[in-house]
Task: inverse folding
């Protein structure tokens, strides 16, 4: 793979390490996902048998550099909205226990050039609120409910 | 003013009520700010004598519908970055005590049409991390440091 996992103590490597701590599940709710290193970490978890679910935005998933096609091709379940408004969340939940959320879209531009924040929260009140939102969206974006014009 | 403060129990009215609880200071770090109701709440606090400081993104502050000019005109201190990368934070700190952060840009489009999250946190560990980031940015974007080409 042309994109090795980041090492050292950069913000990206710390984020990747948090993700790779997943043992059972990884729920991703991401407006935009174009960072190859983060996609590689997600694929690695999928291959290890971690249950990965990914929700994304319909307008952004087809943009140049998007990793969504690659992740679908690898067998990861992806669902998207059907609205003109954005699915603008940017959070991940590891093992239904650790919430990773903030301003950061999972793009190379954001990681390299922007001023961003990422919160890592294990307080169950916050984790549950985001897990509930994830489950609502996952059901709402079930392909069985897609309508075609 | 053509944009009354929102009432009732919408997400926007709850956000406005949190802001209006400020008694001493309101620190705003906002990538994009075009929602007139939120601008009105910020102006109201400024008129009440609350110390308002606002950091924003240089590329987005001039876009159609931006409230930044109006807030500057009202006498509110505004600073912005000088980089091609985005100042992509979207957080507010009320009285150095309550952190309001998430995926939400303060735009009408985001409030009306997007799927978004806003976290309200009073845990001092999180509040301090964001307050420290605000102070760093406030100093870094001091107009005394601006360079003109």
Result:
């Amino acid at each position: 793979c042309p994109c090795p996992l980041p090492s050292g103590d950069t913000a990206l490597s710390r984020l990747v390490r948090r993700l790779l701590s997943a043992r059972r599940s990884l729920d991703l709710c991401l407006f935009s996902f174009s960072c190859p290193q983060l996609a590689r970490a997600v694929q690695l978890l999928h291959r290890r048998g971690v249950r990965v679910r990914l929700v994304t935005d319909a307008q952004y998933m087809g943009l140049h550099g998007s990793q969504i096609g690659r992740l679908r091709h690898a067998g990861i379940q992806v669902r998207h909205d059907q609205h003109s408004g954005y699915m603008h969340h940017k959070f991940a939940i590891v093992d239904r226990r650790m919430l990773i959320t903030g301003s950061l879209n999972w793009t190379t531009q954001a990681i390299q050039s922007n001023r961003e924040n990422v919160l890592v929260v294990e307080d169950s009140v916050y984790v549950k609120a985001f897990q509930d939102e994830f489950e609502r969206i996952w059901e709402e974006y079930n392909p069985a409910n897609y309508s075609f014009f």
About this structure: The interface with chain B takes residues 31, 81, 83-91, 101-104, 109-110, 112-117, 119, 123, 126, 130, 133, 137 of chain A (CB under 8 Å). The helical segments of chain A are 11-20, 36-47, 68-73, 108-113, 124-140.
